[in-house]
């Protein structure tokens, strides 16, 4: 439906997927003119300039028709040739052509759909993390999680680029298309550096020499390449990094990078990360957007930088909601930084919890008063107890037929319901650890129907580990039913562990997932499980993550994408164990290595998953030959790192529940004696009881 009057009126254009409100005032932008385009959510405002004078304005707004129209996020708007319309790119609602004369349609065939519970036909795409536009708007590249798609016809049809040579676990973050050489593409990654393709994306080779890495002797993981731009000489490109190292210049012929002297602060390793979220090169000038503002920087090039129209200069530096500039026929976009949106604040009941992982036997018989004394000595107010263990055994009484139908799945602890009530009466917050997708009971159920398979179709095994298919909605429902039983038993929080897919790096055989939906990714399966669990549970939900998966993004390695998963939970608990960090991580800091490992990990996790509550697991155990010198001082170094990063909550982990060093370390950290424990304290430490005494008979 359309209602048109004279220029300056309002026209309403109804689309199958949305409606667009179009207002014109004083003229329509000409693609050859300079223009400033700004956005606020789904509202786009374009202002045209010629010779420094204002020529006209128009506004477009995504209005109605989408079930979640309020979530529309515009990431770019490109003036169309020959009619004054716009090509509008959104974060996850597709690409639309909007014309002044009432035409409006969605294009973007080939960009994969989002496949997340409840699987309604919302027509949402996987989130666009980065994009690039070249050849007058005809060539468009978009980065969605773990994949790069390219269109050669202005966004109407996309194809996935093979990128042979890019590691399977590599997370793609940014892309740039060369303005003249159509086969030349550069791709920025979360931890591997920059890849270059000269054949239009069929193959790619890695450029990492000179790129900043974490503080390791030989960087195996590099800083996030969040933004990219080609220079104007055919060889130079620019990389904006996300962890504090600022802006680098790269050379395609030398296959290397070097830091630029830009005046941007380098904040690594101390201080909040200074992220370069967008860099564009035009006329010898770099238009740089960071998380702390915008800068214009002269790019070292053979020719002097071109003069910038004062109106465009001021708009770039000061315009609220700036989305793009159109200057001399070039389109420079500055999309908002991608951050998955949360629908709720963390449950306050989960905050302020300092916990100890314990054996259930610590709560029984003569151990109970010792446990209470130990928690007081350590100044802790929470415990983590296995209620669904690494073998899939559920440790509370269960009546749900979904669970009892699985042979051997239930074997309750003795007195478990009374113990939970007793702990809560003492003011102890109880976190139920629940192992999810490593489950030998469910693995064997119905002749392996829900097991991960190898390529031949037999149940897949990784050593002693038996994994179930995390794409299966039955597997989700089974684990949610178990969590509801723990909630019914009286625990304060459900903590999902092994919420991942098995790691098969280095193995020749692959995996097969019989329950995977079309286009569904691992991270979407895990997000779907958490989203469904969030609907069914009343208590706070937390998830355990590998430490590296909370500070790097490798979403399709095992599915743990900290940014995506954190949207659906109250707490994330990464396992920040310094002994498990590889590559000599922070070795250059000497005895400050433990401190910096914890500090940097917390800061990175907070950056990648803003809005969720961070409660890390920290190390309270020896590891192998104790090469990291775990001892009394280790505890204080870890706690200093947490405190400096602004992280108040934590969980001490020792799989054997042997905490003598922890007690000594905390006594020293608080100004006391860190030497051998006095006999009266040593005798009051709980000891593990025989396991057969811990289960019902």
Write the SSE topology.
Elements: E1 10-14, E2 19-25, E3 34-40, E4 43-50, E5 53-62, E6 74-79, E7 86-90, E8 95-98, E9 104-106, E10 130-134, E11 139-144, E12 147-151, E13 159-160, E14 172-177, E15 185-189, E16 194-197, E17 205-207, E18 225-230, E19 236-241, E20 247-251, E21 256-259, E22 276-282, E23 285-290, E24 293-298, H1 310-318, E25 322-327, E26 330-333, E27 354-357, H2 367-378, E28 382-388, H3 401-404, H4 416-425, E29 429-435, H5 440-444, E30 461-462, E31 465-466, H6 473-489, E32 493-497, H7 522-536, E33 541-546, H8 555-558, H9 562-565, E34 571-576, H10 593-608, E35 613-614, E36 617-619, H11 632-645, E37 650-653, H12 660-669, H13 679-682
Parallel strand pairs: 27-28, 27-37, 28-29, 29-32, 32-33, 33-34, 34-35, 34-36, 36-37
Antiparallel strand pairs: 1-2, 2-5, 3-4, 3-25, 4-5, 6-7, 7-8, 8-9, 10-11, 11-12, 12-13, 14-15, 15-16, 16-17, 18-19, 19-20, 20-21, 22-23, 23-24, 25-26, 30-31
Summarize the structure.
The chain has 697 residues and is of the alpha+beta class. Helix content is 18%, strand content 27%.
Highlighted features:
about 700 residues; alpha+beta; 8-stranded parallel beta barrel; 7-stranded antiparallel sheet; 13 helices; about 20% helix
């Amino acid at each position: 439906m359309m209602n048109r009057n004279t220029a300056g009126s309002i026209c309403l254009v109804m689309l199958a997927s949305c409606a667009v409100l179009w207002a014109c005032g004083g003229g329509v932008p000409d693609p050859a003119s300079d223009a400033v385009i700004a956005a606020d959510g789904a509202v786009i405002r374009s202002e045209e300039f010629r010779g420094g004078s204002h020529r006209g304005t128009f506004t477009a707004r995504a209005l109605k028709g989408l079930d979640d129209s309020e979530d529309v996020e515009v990431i770019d708007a490109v003036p169309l040739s020959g009619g004054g319309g716009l090509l509008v790119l959104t974060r996850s609602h597709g690409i639309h052509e909007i014309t002044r004369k009432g035409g409006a349609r969605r294009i973007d065939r080939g960009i994969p759909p989002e496949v997340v519970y409840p699987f309604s036909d919302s027509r949402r795409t996987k989130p666009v993390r980065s994009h690039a536009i070249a050849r007058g708007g005809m060539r468009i590249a978009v980065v969605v999680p773990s994949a790069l798609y390219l269109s050669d016809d202005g966004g109407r049809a996309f194809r996935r680029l093979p990128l042979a040579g890019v590691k399977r676990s590599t997370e793609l973050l940014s892309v740039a298309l060369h303005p003249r050489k159509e086969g030349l593409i550069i791709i920025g990654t979360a931890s591997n550096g920059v890849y270059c393709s000269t054949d239009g994306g069929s193959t790619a080779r890695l450029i990492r020499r000179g790129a900043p890495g974490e503080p390791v002797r030989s960087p195996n993981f590099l800083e996030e390449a969040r933004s990219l731009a080609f220079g104007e000489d055919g060889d130079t490109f620019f990389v904006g990094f996300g962890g504090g190292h600022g802006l680098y210049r790269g050379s395609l012929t030398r296959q290397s990078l070097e830091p630029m002297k830009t005046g941007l602060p380098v904040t690594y390793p101390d201080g909040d990360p200074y992220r370069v979220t967008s860099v564009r090169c035009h006329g010898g000038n770099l238009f740089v957007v960071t998380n702390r503002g915008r800068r214009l920087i002269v790019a070292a090039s053979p020719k002097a930088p071109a003069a910038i129209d004062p109106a465009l200069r001021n708009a770039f530096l000061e315009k609220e909601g700036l989305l793009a500039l159109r200057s001399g026929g070039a389109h420079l976009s500055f999309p908002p930084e991608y951050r998955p949106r949360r629908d709720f604040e963390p449950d306050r009941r989960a905050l302020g919890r300092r916990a100890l992982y314990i054996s259930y036997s610590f709560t029984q018989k003569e151990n109970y008063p010792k446990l209470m004394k130990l928690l007081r000595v350590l100044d802790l107010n929470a415990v983590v107890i296995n209620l669904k263990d690494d073998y899939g055994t559920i440790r509370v009484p269960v009546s749900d037929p979904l669970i009892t139908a699985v042979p051997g799945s239930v074997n309750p602890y003795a007195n478990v319901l009374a113990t939970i009530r007793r702990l809560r009466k003492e003011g102890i917050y109880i976190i139920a650890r629940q192992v999810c997708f490593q489950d030998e009971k469910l693995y064997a159920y119905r002749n392996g129907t829900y097991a991960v398979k190898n390529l031949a179709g037999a149940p897949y095994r990784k050593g002693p580990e038996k994994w179930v298919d995390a794409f299966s909605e039955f597997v989700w429902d089974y684990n949610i039913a178990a969590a509801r039983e723990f909630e019914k038993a009286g625990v304060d929080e459900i903590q999902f562990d092994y919420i991942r897919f098995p790691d098969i790096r280095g193995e020749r055989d692959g995996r097969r997932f019989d329950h995977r939906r079309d286009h569904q990714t691992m991270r979407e399966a895990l997000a779907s499980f958490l989203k469904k669990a969030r609907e069914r549970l009343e208590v706070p939900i937390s998830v355990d993550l590998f430490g590296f998966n909370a500070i790097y993004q490798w979403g399709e390695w095992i599915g743990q994408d900290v940014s995506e998963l954190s949207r659906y939970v109250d707490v994330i608990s990464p396992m920040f164990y310094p002994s498990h960090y590889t590559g000599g991580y922070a070795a250059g800091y000497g005895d400050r290595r433990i401190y910096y490992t914890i500090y940097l990990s917390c800061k990175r996790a907070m950056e990648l998953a803003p809005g969720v509550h961070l409660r890390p697991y920290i190390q309270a155990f020896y590891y192998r030959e104790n090469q990291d010198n775990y001892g009394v001082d280790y505890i204080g170094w870890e706690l200093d790192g947490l405190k400096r990063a602004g992280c108040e909550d934590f969980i001490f982990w020792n799989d054997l529940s042997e905490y003598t060093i922890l007690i000594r370390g905390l006594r020293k950290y608080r100004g006391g004696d860190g030497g051998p424990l006095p006999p009266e304290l040593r005798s009051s430490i709980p000891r593990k009881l025989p396991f057969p005494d811990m289960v019902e008979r």
